[in-house]
Amino acid sequence: MTENCDHRVLGGFQCVDAITKSSIVDPLKVSSSQLLLRANRSGVYAVWDAPGLRKYMSFDPLLPWPSPTPFEIAIEDPTWFYLPRRGNIQVPQPLPANRAAPAPPFTVSTDQPIVYGPQPVTLYRGPSADIAPNWAVVRASVTSNGNPPVRLPWAVLQVLSGAPPLSGASPMATGVADWNGEALLAVPGLGLQVSSSSGGPVTETTTLATVQVWFDPTILSQPPGWVPNPDDILQNLSSSSWKTATAAIQFGPGQTVFVPLTVPI
User: Fold this and answer.
1) Helix (H) or strand (E) segment spanning residue 213
2) Is residue 151 packed enough to be buried (19+ CB in 10 Å), middle (13-18) or exposed (0-12)?
3) Beta strands 107-108 and 85-91: pairing type?
4) Which of 78, 88, 100, 178 would give a disulfide with 70, using CB separation of 3.0 to 4.6 Å?
């Protein structure tokens, strides 16, 4: 005898590679002190239970759907291909405005219009991770301006198109330094660029860009084993709390540029 059991999940998320933007299906260690999480074979983690929300897991059309609340998760890669991180997901995820309309199983609420699908949590590759032969690669080392200099862990970096000063430039790549201040950033599919010179070749094999780093000085007082949430910085890059530095580079497909960045602390 088969028994049919209906169970509504409270939300879902999936880990996304910062460089390729693809979903990560390799086994990861995902945990939360408050949420019960279960993964499927597609790399989607479903929120199976959450504090105070168990009654919403049954299909009751008359029960008002509560407002989303941020819950913290922690992610580790046993292979160290990706750096560990913390993150926040919204639980429960908002329901579609028109409940009669067909919708995928999850929704995610952001400052933009609601997007249907698992909430994305970006993972950043460590400095020893694999790279493709045709990527434009930046390997950065982040240190303080002290004497002697100190390696700055968990700094957030971006590659921005153009030379400084920059205003409103869209990032070409985003990365995070590891516990030793080393970071890997890469831009796939970077092709030939139209030359800015009035003479010589029409195209150029390299692109002018700027590497910018942001560092939170309070990280230096964190206990051993502490893991960051990069979104704390990325969602507020203009904060005066962060220390920052820039470096101009030229890079292109299949090239690796090594960039030392000195941050005034």
Assistant:
1) strand 207-215
2) middle
3) unpaired
4) 88
Of 113, 117, 93, the closest CA to residue 104 belongs to 117
Query: What pTM does this model have?
Result: 0.84
Structure tokens at 9: 């999940």
Angle at 25 between CA 20 and CA 28, to 5 degrees: 110
pLDDT tens string 174-186: 999 999 999 999 9
Helix or strand holding residue 261 (H, E): strand 256-263
Q: What is the mean pLDDT of residues 123-132?
A: 96
Partner residues linked to 93 by β-bridges:
none
* β-pairing verdict for 256-263 and 136-144: parallel
**Of 30, 55, 58, nearest to 45 (Cα)?**
30
Q: What is the maximum alpha-carbon separation in the chain?
A: 80
Query: Measuring CA to CA, which residue among 159, 113, 124 is closest to residue 15?
Result: 124
Beta-carbon count within 10 A of 186 CB: 23
CA distance 86 to 176: 13
Q: Residue range 68-78: average pLDDT?
A: 94
pLDDT: which is higher, 242 or 103: 242
| 138 contacts 185 by C-beta, under 8 angstroms | yes
pLDDT greater at residue 105 or residue 85:
85
Distance in angstroms (rounded) separating the CA atoms of residues 229 and 86: 5
C-alpha 231/C-alpha 233 separation (Å) is: 5
